[in-house]
Design a protein that fits this description.
The complex is a heterodimer of chains A (285) and B (299). Helices cover 68% and strands 0% of the residues of chain A. With 285 residues, chain A is mainly α. The C terminus of chain A is likely disordered. By secondary structure, chain B is mainly alpha-helical. Chain B contains 13 helices and 2 strands; from the N terminus they run H-E-E-H-H-H-H-H-H-H-H-H-H-H-H. The model of chain B has no long low-confidence stretch (mean pLDDT 85). Classes of the chains: A mainly alpha (285), B mainly alpha (299). Chains A and B meet through helix 1, helix 4, helix 5, helix 6 and helix 11 of A and helix 1, helix 3, helix 4, helix 5 and helix 7 of B.
């Protein structure tokens, strides 16, 4: 890799660059450290000047108020469950749909195949934000307000994932598929046992992108889930930002709680996370 | 005869495999889009049962002459440009720096990427407190500027408010785009770099004359993705206005669409803005696709 074996940079420049790097890293990590330390502080200590990074005492009441809410309803637990259900279902369904369609489009010849592919490609050009209101109207017409189906279904078709799946499956050897046919597997059996089970890396990346997207989604639940018990974590958090409600300690505690699952996922599956972002630069290979 | 039969049978399975995707596309993309376009010519009231009145292009002319709409365009443009210039510049610089590090490269990538993992709502929450009049945002800036006790109005003053939203965006996405650059730089063939070293090129020359030109596709892609993403930004602005920040400076198009539809219940107006936003974003995406087609491998 570049400059790796032959470092023409002299010591001084290298030292300056390192120093700069440390400074940038501190700046990037500071807000996260702030969130962590502030979640254990009383509201008055959060705004102490100068800021004390170590809480004077571990203030766990913040977490209680974050979970209980200001009306002691503990709706937070239900909302976390909603987020988990919605994100998992969307990820699962979307990889199934992408894998199925990607397989169909790469390995079968049928009338209209190219048109369908073009349509799917065209869908990539339509960002959710531009059709959220029309989508919302459609969902209302279908009676999907305040339902899991309504929260999940619009995001099951993940055109980017589908495109990636198709590209991946194009290189899948036909011989293996034919071998499966000769051995008497049905088409669905071939799909499930041979294609799906052998696409793990592509599927994992797509699943993580989809899960993360849903975990982070504020707009759609904001539109569709008006009932408290159907809200997801991002919409639950909105309450803590309202002007009249100022409980900074609980605000940071809820931020920590909302981040925990995704951070744990990130630490254990960082390979796929980074792959997911690198995918954009992969071009068409 | 037999082989044709098999081909036909196979073709039918092709349809089976694409059906779920196609159905979802029809219900949740095509129909809403056509319906939205149709809605723009009518005066739609969400809760009314009476058939909507045909108004022709009146919704469009209303929108194009409304100051709220142009204010949104302005807010969005300022936000997008403000975010994308530093974002593309710094992610390139950080990407270059990270690839030259011999040790801890993976760890560095992970640390840079961390903010991108947190959800945008959490990011807004954290920075809301940092930007509080009593928060560390003020104390840090006052420490560097040696102006103790000054309140910089991060969440109230027009310019500062815009600056604050851009800062959050920058913080959240810088690592993401840095990783993209790291991936892009890793793809530059080592043989070319070795040749440059043998020819006696300095590090700066290698970067300027070899790496940057070869990174053109990545740069193009980062540019358009940043533009597209910042056009979509919503969470930060929404949460800030919930907290009491003035709406006008950060009333980006997405937020305006949301408020017009959900607060004012003016569905047709929201649809007009959606159509316009759609056109802008679609042209950007088209440019992106075209450029990535052209520039795949030019080595």
């Amino acid at each position: 890799m570049f400059l790796r074996n032959n470092t023409p940079l002299n010591r001084v420049t290298n030292y300056i660059i390192n120093l700069f790097l440390v400074f940038i890293l501190l700046a990037i990590l500071m807000p996260i450290a702030f969130m962590l330390s502030a979640s254990f502080m009383s509201s008055s200590e959060i705004f102490s000047m100068p800021y004390r990074w170590i809480p004077s005492r571990i203030y766990l009441e913040n977490f209680y108020r974050a979970v209980a809410g200001n009306d002691q309803s503990f709706i937070f637990l239900r909302n976390v469950l909603n987020s988990v259900v919605v994100a998992t279902t969307t990820a699962t369904l979307s990889i199934m749909v992408s894998c199925l369609a990607g397989y169909g489009l790469s390995k079968f010849r049928f009338r209209g195949r190219n048109i369908i592919f073009l349509i799917i490609m065209g869908r990539m050009m339509i960002p959710f934000e531009a059709i959220m209101i029309p989508m919302y109207i459609t969902a209302v017409k279908l009676g999907l307000q305040n339902t899991y189906a309504g929260l999940v279904l619009p995001f099951v078709l993940n055109t980017f994932g589908l495109f990636q799946m198709r590209q991946y499956l194009m290189t899948f050897p036909d011989d293996i598929l034919d071998a499966g046919r000769i051995d008497g597997l049905g088409e669905l059996g071939i799909f499930w046992r041979i294609v799906f089970k052998n696409s793990t890396p592509a599927i994992a990346t797509a699943a993580i992108l989809s899960f993360r997207g849903q975990w982070d989604n504020l707009l759609w639940p904001l539109l569709l889930a008006q009932k408290e018990k159907m809200k997801t974590i991002p919409t639950y958090i909105v309450k803590f930002t309202e002007e009249k409600y100022s409980d900074e300690g609980a605000m940071m505690a809820v931020a920590v709680l909302a981040s925990l699952p995704i951070v744990v996922m990130f630490l254990s599956l960082s390979k796929y996370f980074l792959q997911g972002s690198g995918m954009y630069s992969a071009g068409k290979e | 005869m037999k082989s044709i039969g098999i081909e036909k049978k196979k073709a039918r399975w092709g349809y089976v495999f694409v059906t779920p995707a196609l159905l979802l596309f029809l219900i949740f993309s095509l129909y809403p889009m056509l319906n939205a376009f149709y809605n723009t010519f009518f005066n739609i009231k969400l809760l009314s049962l009476r058939p909507p009145k045909f108004v022709g292009l009146k919704n469009y002319s209303y929108m194009l002459s409304s100051s709220g709409f142009w204010n949104s365009m302005k807010a969005t443009a300022i936000f997008s440009l403000g975010a994308f210039i530093p974002l593309s510049l710094f992610s390139l610089i950080f990407g270059l720096i990270i690839t030259t590090r011999l040790r801890h490269q993976k760890t560095l990538q992970l640390l840079f990427y961390t903010p991108a993992v947190l959800s945008s709502v959490v990011a807004a929450l954290i920075w809301m407190l940092i930007f509080d009049p009593r928060g560390i945002g003020n104390s840090v800036v006052n420490f560097f500027l040696r102006t103790p006790g000054v309140d910089h109005n991060w969440l109230t003053n027009t310019g500062m408010l815009r600056f604050s939203t851009v800062t959050i965006y920058l913080w959240k996405y810088i690592g993401y785009f840095t990783i993209i650059y790291v991936t892009g730089i890793a793809k530059v063939p080592t043989s070319i770099l070795e040749a440059a070293t043998i020819a006696g090129a300095s590090a700066m020359q290698t970067i300027r004359l070899i790496i940057l030109p070869l990174l053109r596709p990545t740069t193009m892609m980062v540019t358009i993705v940043t533009m597209l993403n910042s056009l979509k930004s919503f969470s930060t602005q929404y949460l800030f206005t919930q907290r009491g920040a003035p709406l006008e400076p950060i009333d980006v198009v997405t937020l305006n669409i949301y408020n017009t539809a959900m607060r004012d219940l003016k569905i047709s107006h929201a649809c007009v803005m959606s159509v316009l936003l759609f056109l802008v974003m679609m042209s950007l995406t088209l440019v992106r696709m075209k450029s990535s087609e052209k520039d795949v491998t030019v080595y």
